[in-house]
Each structure stands twice: as structure tokens, then as C-alpha cells.
Amino acid sequence: MSGTGAVEVWRGTVAAWECDGMGHLNVRFYVARATQGLAGAAAALGMPHAFASHAAATLIVREHHIRFLREARAGALQHMTASVVAMGETDAVLQFVLTNSSTNETSATFLTKVVHASARDGRPFPWPGRARAAAAALTTSAATNAGPRSIDAGFEAAPPTPAAAAARGLAQAGLSVVTAEDCDVFGRLRTEMFMGRMSASIGHTVEPFRKAAQAAVPEVRLGGAAMEYRLVYFEHPRAGDRIAVHSGLVGVDRKMARMRHWLLDPHTGAPWAVAENVSVNFDLDTRKAVLIPAGAVEALQASVVKG
User: Fold this and answer.
1) Span 247-305, pLDDT tens digits
2) What is the CATH number assigned to the segment(s) 1-144?
3) What is the pLDDT of residues 174-208, one digit of tens each?
4) How many CA atoms lie within 13 A of 104 on its CB side?
5) What kind of architecture, by CATH, is found in domain 155-307?
6) Where in the chain is the domain with CATH 3.10.129.10?
7) Cα separation of 29 and 129, whole Å?
8) 3-class SS at 201?
9) Contact assessment for residue 272 and residue 234, using Cβ atoms and an 8 Å cutoff
10) How far apart are the first and last CA of the chain?
């Protein structure tokens, strides 16, 4: 079934403080826009107070698949639309499209699996009739530039303990505590903060690979750019909980590197979330992807782990 199409759910500008050392919008703030957009999508589904402190029902994100299509730099004008790709008894797949408002080019796409759940305990329960009626008008097919391209769709099957993660070659790259400021009005870690934890820790994992790639192309001022992410959320930690990020390289070729990240409770070993991302080597001057020599790839492949 196809409805009237997408609805605008967010509009704003890229701030300089949202940009990273590569000079473009940090991945955390892409997800922050999707979090803002989710509130707009909830309103369009007849749940305008889904993220208010008094809400009885809300939407909880269980999975994100993100394609980064064009970089966004400070000052860029952006807007986001949302539509419904599929709706089950208690869940749905929503599509968010982030667009450069000046050029009308797509910056990123998100396929987001959500559950309709009680706000306090996160218990899924069926969508109300008004949400289903609204979804019918918002239903579209997934865009051709959304959905998996280079990501392993089955990677989340076996959550490791910290010890098992180490045995699989995933080194601890980040360790932090959740603060009250990191959480939403229901006390759960905000979705963009999962990505924020990975973004803050990934340098510990990529530094040796980045140095090896740079040595292979010394004439290029080399950086990196994310092309695709898939994140699966198991539990949302609360203030005072700790997060250990275990990361490793699970694939590499001349153009792209693929990494796996497990976010674990360092005390119990329980998984909070898992992610996989694909990134490219990136010329910081031309703003284009760079191929590294085959010999350098062979050296990097020695660092590939099971993940």
C-alpha cells in the first residue's frame, strides 16, 4: 500500500561545533537529527506527546541502518522527512531522509526499526487505530539509496562478554559512564549517545590503520569518512551505568574498511548495542575517496579480526 508520501519532521542548520576533525558533520549528530525526526514522525502518527515526560506511550528505536551519501559541512541548511515503510502489530520501519535544503541533494538516509511501547517500562503493545490510519497515508517504499549495501546483516547473532570480545580480537577502545544529561525524559540513554560513544572511541582503533594508509600515500592528506552504519540496540542504559566499547577491523580493501563495535556493560558483560560501519579513506583537500595501494591492503589484512 502506498500513501501520500513523506512528511517534514525536522529543519535546521549544521553548526560548527557539530563538525569533527574531518571538517564535516559528525556521525553522532546525524543520529541526533534522526532522534528529532522521530518525534516529528510520532506526531504525524497521532502521538504528538510521545517524548513528553507525561507520555503513556512512546517509540523506542531498536535498529538503525544509515547511508551517508554526501558530506555536510558547517553552515549547511538541512531538512528531514519521514515516511512509513512497514508496520507490524507493535513495531514499524520508518524511513528518514536528510536533505541539503540549498541543493536538494540527499545527505543521508535512515531505515529505523521502532517499537510502540509503554513509556516507563518499554513494554511493546499494539499500535492504536489512529496510528494505523495515519501510517496508511504516510506509507512509501524504501528509497533506492536506503537499505544495506556493504553491511553484514547477520552480525548481531552472538553477543560476546568482554572476555569473549577480547578473544575475538575486539580491543577496548572506549570506557565511560552514562550521565543524567545523556538521558531522555524517561531516563534512558538517548539514541544518538550510542553513536557518540563509538565516535569518541574509534580513534583508538583506527589510528594504526590510518597511519599505515597514510604511509602508503604520503602525498595525500588522509582522513576517513563513514559511508554506512548499522546499529542494533538491545538495552538502553541509564544514568550511572557504564559503557565499554570494544572495536576491531573485520574487513578491508583498497577503498573501504569495515569495523565492528560492541557496547557492553563492563560489570555484567551484558550487551547494550552492536554496530558495524563501512568507511573510506578520504582526501581532506579534494574531499574525495582515495584508493590505497594493494600492498598496503595486504599489510592491513593481517589486522583483521573475527569481530
Assistant:
1) 999 999 998 999 999 999 999 989 999 999 999 988 999 999 999 888 888 888 888 88
2) 3.10.129.10
3) 999 999 999 999 999 999 999 999 999 999 988 88
4) 0
5) Roll (3.10)
6) 1-144, 155-307
7) 33
8) helix
9) yes
10) 39
